[in-house]
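Please fill in the sequence for the structure shown.

STRUCTURE ENCODING:
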């Protein structure tokens, strides 16, 4: 699998997780998250959706 395909898969998972857990507040983060190119940063974001209680906590993972 190419890095591009892995990144796209991670972004799809993140988008779905944000929608299901945080609704529109979470989806507001998508433009910022989609600008991240490194899969090594996207993976903790995807994992963090499960453990974060708030959108602010999730943002702390990549800021």
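FILLED IN BY: designer on duty
SEQUENCE:
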């Amino acid at each position: 699998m190419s890095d591009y395909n892995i990144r796209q898969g991670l972004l799809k998972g993140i988008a779905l997780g944000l929608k299901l857990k945080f609704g529109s507040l979470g989806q507001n983060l998508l433009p910022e998250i989609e600008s991240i190119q490194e899969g090594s940063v996207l993976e903790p974001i995807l994992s963090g959706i499960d453990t974060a209680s708030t959108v602010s906590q999730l943002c702390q993972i990549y800021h």
